[in-house]
Amino acid sequence: MVRMLAQRYDMIHCGENYHDVFPRNKLSRWKQPGLCYFDTMSGWSEWLHMTPEEHWNWTCQVSMECVEIEILELIRLAASGKKVIVDTNIPPDVLREISAYNRVAIMLCDPPDICATRFFDREDPDKKFMMEQIQLCPDPEATLQNFNSWALYHPPLEIDWEHTGFFTYTRSDFENDTREEVLSILAKHFGLEKAK
User: Fold this and answer.
1) Alpha helices (H) in the chain, listed in sequence order
2) Is 6 helix (H, G, I), strand (E, B) or coil?
3) Does residue 102 contact residue 18 with C-beta atoms inside 8 Å?
4) Cα atoms in the 13 Å half-sphere on the side-chain side of 106
5) What is residue 193's predicted lDDT score, i.e. its pLDDT?
6) What does the angle CA 25 – CA 26 – CA 32 come to, to the nearest 5 degrees?
7) Of residues 167, 168, 162, 193, the one with CA closest to residue 180
8) Phi first, then psi: what are they for 192, rounded to 5°?
9) What is the percent of the chain where pLDDT is above 70?
Protein backbone atom coordinates (compact mmCIF):
# COMPACT_ATOMS: atom_id res chain seq x y z
CA MET A 1 0.00 0.00 0.00
CA VAL A 2 2.81 2.42 0.85
CA ARG A 3 4.46 1.82 -2.53
CA MET A 4 1.16 2.09 -4.41
CA LEU A 5 0.13 5.29 -2.63
CA ALA A 6 3.54 6.83 -3.30
CA GLN A 7 3.30 6.03 -7.01
CA ARG A 8 -0.32 7.11 -7.40
CA TYR A 9 -0.01 10.40 -5.50
CA ASP A 10 3.61 11.33 -6.29
CA MET A 11 4.98 10.96 -2.77
CA ILE A 12 8.36 9.92 -1.44
CA HIS A 13 8.17 6.20 -0.62
CA CYS A 14 9.86 4.90 2.53
CA GLY A 15 9.38 1.15 2.62
CA GLU A 16 9.77 -1.26 5.48
CA ASN A 17 13.14 -0.88 7.22
CA TYR A 18 13.83 2.54 5.68
CA HIS A 19 16.02 3.13 8.73
CA ASP A 20 18.62 1.07 6.84
CA VAL A 21 19.63 4.29 5.03
CA PHE A 22 21.45 5.23 8.23
CA PRO A 23 25.12 4.24 7.76
CA ARG A 24 25.74 0.95 9.60
CA ASN A 25 29.17 2.13 10.70
CA LYS A 26 27.50 5.01 12.60
CA LEU A 27 25.33 2.65 14.67
CA SER A 28 26.51 1.97 18.21
CA ARG A 29 26.52 -1.63 19.42
CA TRP A 30 25.94 -0.20 22.90
CA LYS A 31 23.14 2.21 21.99
CA GLN A 32 21.55 0.09 19.22
CA PRO A 33 22.34 -3.57 19.97
CA GLY A 34 19.14 -4.73 18.26
CA LEU A 35 19.93 -2.92 15.01
CA CYS A 36 23.51 -4.22 15.20
CA TYR A 37 22.41 -7.81 15.85
CA PHE A 38 22.88 -8.92 12.24
CA ASP A 39 26.50 -7.70 12.42
CA THR A 40 27.18 -9.65 15.60
CA MET A 41 25.21 -12.90 15.12
CA SER A 42 27.05 -16.11 14.27
CA GLY A 43 24.89 -16.62 11.16
CA TRP A 44 21.30 -16.64 9.92
CA SER A 45 20.61 -19.94 11.63
CA GLU A 46 21.11 -18.25 15.01
CA TRP A 47 18.46 -15.62 14.20
CA LEU A 48 16.06 -18.15 12.66
CA HIS A 49 16.23 -20.28 15.79
CA MET A 50 15.29 -17.52 18.24
CA THR A 51 12.36 -18.61 20.36
CA PRO A 52 9.14 -16.66 19.76
CA GLU A 53 9.72 -14.74 23.00
CA GLU A 54 13.33 -13.91 22.05
CA HIS A 55 12.20 -12.77 18.59
CA TRP A 56 9.42 -10.60 20.06
CA ASN A 57 11.85 -8.97 22.50
CA TRP A 58 14.38 -8.34 19.71
CA THR A 59 11.67 -6.87 17.44
CA CYS A 60 10.52 -4.50 20.22
CA GLN A 61 14.11 -3.50 20.89
CA VAL A 62 14.70 -2.74 17.19
CA SER A 63 11.48 -0.69 17.02
CA MET A 64 12.60 1.49 19.91
CA GLU A 65 16.10 1.88 18.48
CA CYS A 66 14.62 2.90 15.11
CA VAL A 67 12.53 5.75 16.48
CA GLU A 68 15.27 8.38 16.55
CA ILE A 69 16.74 7.30 13.20
CA GLU A 70 13.37 7.12 11.43
CA ILE A 71 12.16 10.49 12.74
CA LEU A 72 15.39 12.16 11.65
CA GLU A 73 15.07 10.58 8.19
CA LEU A 74 11.44 11.72 7.88
CA ILE A 75 12.40 15.29 8.81
CA ARG A 76 15.22 15.20 6.24
CA LEU A 77 12.91 13.90 3.49
CA ALA A 78 10.04 16.26 4.32
CA ALA A 79 12.39 19.24 3.96
CA SER A 80 12.06 18.81 0.18
CA GLY A 81 8.44 19.96 0.47
CA LYS A 82 7.16 16.74 -1.08
CA LYS A 83 4.76 14.46 0.84
CA VAL A 84 6.34 11.36 2.37
CA ILE A 85 4.59 8.05 3.01
CA VAL A 86 6.23 5.46 5.20
CA ASP A 87 5.96 1.90 6.50
CA THR A 88 7.32 2.62 9.96
CA ASN A 89 8.54 0.91 13.11
CA ILE A 90 7.59 3.92 15.25
CA PRO A 91 5.23 2.65 17.98
CA PRO A 92 1.76 4.19 18.49
CA ASP A 93 2.64 5.93 21.77
CA VAL A 94 5.42 7.86 19.99
CA LEU A 95 3.25 8.52 16.92
CA ARG A 96 0.65 10.17 19.17
CA GLU A 97 3.32 12.69 20.19
CA ILE A 98 4.51 13.54 16.67
CA SER A 99 1.60 12.88 14.32
CA ALA A 100 -2.19 13.07 13.94
CA TYR A 101 -5.10 10.70 13.32
CA ASN A 102 -5.39 11.54 9.60
CA ARG A 103 -1.67 10.87 9.06
CA VAL A 104 -1.50 7.34 10.49
CA ALA A 105 -3.12 4.10 9.35
CA ILE A 106 -2.56 0.78 11.07
CA MET A 107 -2.99 -2.22 8.81
CA LEU A 108 -4.24 -5.42 10.46
CA CYS A 109 -5.26 -8.83 9.19
CA ASP A 110 -7.88 -11.35 10.22
CA PRO A 111 -7.21 -14.11 10.96
CA PRO A 112 -4.15 -12.84 12.86
CA ASP A 113 -2.22 -16.05 12.12
CA ILE A 114 -2.27 -15.34 8.37
CA CYS A 115 1.39 -14.26 8.61
CA ALA A 116 2.28 -17.75 9.77
CA THR A 117 0.48 -19.41 6.88
CA ARG A 118 0.94 -16.97 3.97
CA PHE A 119 4.17 -15.08 4.70
CA PHE A 120 6.05 -16.57 1.76
CA ASP A 121 3.16 -16.28 -0.73
CA ARG A 122 4.38 -12.90 -1.99
CA GLU A 123 7.38 -12.68 -4.25
CA ASP A 124 9.86 -10.16 -2.93
CA PRO A 125 13.64 -10.32 -2.50
CA ASP A 126 13.58 -10.30 1.32
CA LYS A 127 11.14 -13.23 1.53
CA LYS A 128 13.09 -15.16 -1.11
CA PHE A 129 16.33 -14.57 0.81
CA MET A 130 14.73 -15.66 4.09
CA MET A 131 13.43 -18.89 2.54
CA GLU A 132 16.91 -19.58 1.12
CA GLN A 133 18.39 -19.18 4.62
CA ILE A 134 15.74 -21.50 6.09
CA GLN A 135 16.58 -24.13 3.46
CA LEU A 136 20.27 -23.93 4.41
CA CYS A 137 19.54 -24.89 8.04
CA PRO A 138 20.16 -28.51 9.16
CA ASP A 139 16.40 -29.12 9.59
CA PRO A 140 14.59 -26.69 7.25
CA GLU A 141 11.13 -27.97 8.18
CA ALA A 142 11.69 -27.40 11.91
CA THR A 143 13.27 -24.01 11.17
CA LEU A 144 10.27 -22.96 9.08
CA GLN A 145 7.94 -24.13 11.84
CA ASN A 146 9.89 -22.04 14.37
CA PHE A 147 9.87 -19.03 12.02
CA ASN A 148 6.09 -19.30 11.61
CA SER A 149 5.63 -19.62 15.38
CA TRP A 150 6.88 -16.05 15.78
CA ALA A 151 3.66 -14.76 14.18
CA LEU A 152 1.55 -16.75 16.66
CA TYR A 153 3.35 -15.55 19.79
CA HIS A 154 1.30 -13.44 22.21
CA PRO A 155 3.50 -11.54 24.68
CA PRO A 156 2.26 -10.66 28.17
CA LEU A 157 2.00 -6.95 27.26
CA GLU A 158 0.70 -6.85 23.70
CA ILE A 159 -0.42 -3.69 21.92
CA ASP A 160 -4.15 -3.62 21.22
CA TRP A 161 -3.71 -2.25 17.70
CA GLU A 162 -7.43 -1.61 17.14
CA HIS A 163 -7.60 0.67 20.16
CA THR A 164 -4.54 2.87 19.72
CA GLY A 165 -6.69 5.88 18.80
CA PHE A 166 -5.54 5.69 15.17
CA PHE A 167 -7.39 4.64 12.02
CA THR A 168 -7.19 0.88 11.46
CA TYR A 169 -8.03 -1.24 8.46
CA THR A 170 -8.41 -5.00 8.81
CA ARG A 171 -7.89 -7.17 5.76
CA SER A 172 -9.82 -10.43 5.84
CA ASP A 173 -10.14 -11.32 2.14
CA PHE A 174 -7.01 -13.20 1.09
CA GLU A 175 -8.47 -14.83 -2.01
CA ASN A 176 -9.32 -11.73 -4.07
CA ASP A 177 -7.14 -8.82 -5.11
CA THR A 178 -8.35 -5.99 -2.88
CA ARG A 179 -5.44 -3.62 -3.48
CA GLU A 180 -7.42 -0.94 -5.35
CA GLU A 181 -10.22 -1.02 -2.77
CA VAL A 182 -7.78 -0.66 0.14
CA LEU A 183 -5.80 1.99 -1.73
CA SER A 184 -8.97 4.07 -2.15
CA ILE A 185 -9.88 3.72 1.55
CA LEU A 186 -6.40 4.81 2.61
CA ALA A 187 -6.31 7.68 0.10
CA LYS A 188 -9.56 9.03 1.54
CA HIS A 189 -8.30 8.61 5.10
CA PHE A 190 -5.11 10.53 4.28
CA GLY A 191 -7.09 13.26 2.46
CA LEU A 192 -5.57 12.39 -0.90
CA GLU A 193 -9.03 11.80 -2.41
CA LYS A 194 -12.39 13.29 -1.62
CA ALA A 195 -14.81 10.93 0.16
CA LYS A 196 -17.83 10.06 -1.97
Assistant:
1) 2-8, 37-40, 44-48, 52-78, 92-98, 114-118, 125-136, 140-152, 179-189
2) helix
3) no
4) 20
5) 83
6) 100
7) 193
8) -85, -20
9) 95
